[in-house]
Amino acid sequence: MLVVLSNAVEGTDDEFNRWYTGTHLAEVLKLDGYVAAQRFKLSGGQLGPGDVPYHYFALYEVDTEDPAVPAQALLAGIGSMDMSATLDLGRTVAWFYTPVTERVGADS
Question: Residue 15: inside a domain, yes or no?
């Protein structure tokens, strides 16, 4: 899984969300290894007080044994993507995660 935490440039959330959902997700999913994606926004109720540094969360499912493959595909492809000025790159992070367990459901 690739986890991307991001923010819109202040005052551009609507445009940012249109771009990310309508353009960026599709561009990433065209890259080798990327098979699915879903976006989330920060909910109103949180477990504790304080500022939350990221307001948006994207989860990309990758189909690979080697996370370096989709990472390299993303780095190679990003230059040809339609990037939006509404993405606050200074407040965006991305990390690959590998499962350590099978998915566990409440009824398991």
Answer: yes
